């Protein structure tokens, strides 16, 4: 049986999003004259359509069964009248949320057009609503995906005193996420929680193997054997505090324990090192917040602009 329901966006980060939609009301030239002269019996069609578009955009989730209830930060409704018999309605919607606002913009444009139709039908039997479409959509994770003329290479280090490759789930989850974003994994290892061993391996992966990114999993807590952040701090040449801030902020919305992770992120040479938590859930959630934004760092390391 096919499961029907709202698309799961619980793991998506919030991003700035915009959508612009249009609808066109076709009317007779004589009705255009009445509109311009303000002689429509039911009143000002533009004021009514603007109000109805705002109301409809904000209630889209209540009208369309699989739309998410989301925040809306801005709605703009604009009109242009063409003398030969067209009124173009343009609705712009903006928000910062996990999913886009194209349906809100389209719904606003549709309801604005229907409002005009209702107000104009006593004086015009030729009315038509046409060309309802999305003109522009920006934002979301896909807008931050980077393309390169080479393959980016990664290494994954799972840090645990007791875990074997057969038992390791977090490392395999990280490998799947990296494949999703087109990164090729050069090495995948499990190391004991020994600070000097971790430091030497990080240096080798950065300086000798030359991977683009090293993701570590485990050893980021406050226990006596959690030494991954210390080892990383001794190896990196530049700390990127925004990486760890993002991981913890994202995780804290999902579990109150995220604040206890001490993982850091930084750069050694041209290699990025990021400490992820050790559990499968925490590691995958961290990657959800890390990608695709982290990919831009490689362009910056190569000397390209922001």
What is the tally of helical segments? 10
CATH superfamily label of the largest domain:
MoaB/Mog-like domain
Order of helices and strands: EHHHEEHEEHEHEHEHEEHH
Largest sheet: 6 strands, mixed
CATH 2nd-level architecture of the largest domain: 3-Layer(aba) Sandwich
Helix content: 25-40%
Strand order of the largest sheet: 6-5-7-10-9-8
Distance between the termini: 48 Å
Just give the CATH class of the largest domain.
Alpha Beta
SS elements, strand count: 10
Q: Mean pLDDT, as a whole number?
A: 90
Write down the CATH topology of the largest domain: Molybdenum Cofactor Biosythetic Enzyme, Chain A
Indicate how many domains the architecture comprises.
Answer: 2
Taken as a percent bin, the fraction of beta residues is 15-25%
Uncertain residue ranges: none
Alpha-beta content class: alpha/beta
What is the CA-based Rg, rounded?
A: 27 Å
User: How would you describe the shape?
Assistant: elongated
Structure in words:
It contains ten helices and ten strands. The chain is α/β, with parallel strands linked by helices and about 300 residues long. The chain has two domains: about 130 residues, Molybdopterin cofactor biosynthesis C (MoaC) domain (Alpha-Beta Plaits), CATH 3.30.70; about 160 residues, MoaB/Mog-like domain (Molybdenum Cofactor Biosythetic Enzyme, Chain A, 3-Layer(aba) Sandwich). Helix 2 runs antiparallel to helix 4 and helix 8 packs across helix 9. The radius of gyration is 27 Å and the shape is elongated.
């Amino acid at each position: 049986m096919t499961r029907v329901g709202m698309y799961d966006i619980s793991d998506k980060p919030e991003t700035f999003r915009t959508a612009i939609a249009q609808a066109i009301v076709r009317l007779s030239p004589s009705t255009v004259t009445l509109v311009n002269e303000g002689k429509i019996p039911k009143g000002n069609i533009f004021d009514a359509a603007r109000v109805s578009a705002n109301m409809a955009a904000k209630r889209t989730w209540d009208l369309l069964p699989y739309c998410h209830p989301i925040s809306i930060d801005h709605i703009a409704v604009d009109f242009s009248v063409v003398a030969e018999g067209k009124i173009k309605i343009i609705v712009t919607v903006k928000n910062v949320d996990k999913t886009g606002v194209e349906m809100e913009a389209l719904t606003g444009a549709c309801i604005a057009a229907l409002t005009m139709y209702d107000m104009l039908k006593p004086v015009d039997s030729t009315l038509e609503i046409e060309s309802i479409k999305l003109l522009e959509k920006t934002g979301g994770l896909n807008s931050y995906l980077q393309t390169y003329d080479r393959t980016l290479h990664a290494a994954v280090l799972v840090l645990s005193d007791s875990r074997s490759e057969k038992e390791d789930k977090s490392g395999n989850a990280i490998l799947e996420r990296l494949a999703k974003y087109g990164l090729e994994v050069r090495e995948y290892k499990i190391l004991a929680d020994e600070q000097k061993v971790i430091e030497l391996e990080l240096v080798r992966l950065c300086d000798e193997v030359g991977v683009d990114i090293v993701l570590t999993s485990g050893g980021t807590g406050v226990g006596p054997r959690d030494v991954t952040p210390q080892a990383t701090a001794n190896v990196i040449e530049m700390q990127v505090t925004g990486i760890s801030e993002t991981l913890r902020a994202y995780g804290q919305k999902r579990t109150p324990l995220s604040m206890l992770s001490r993982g850091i992120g930084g750069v050694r040479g041209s290699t990025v090192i990021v400490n992820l938590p050790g559990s499968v859930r925490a590691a995958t959630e961290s990657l959800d917040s890390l990608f695709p934004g982290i990919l831009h760092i490689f362009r910056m390391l190569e000397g390209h602009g922001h």
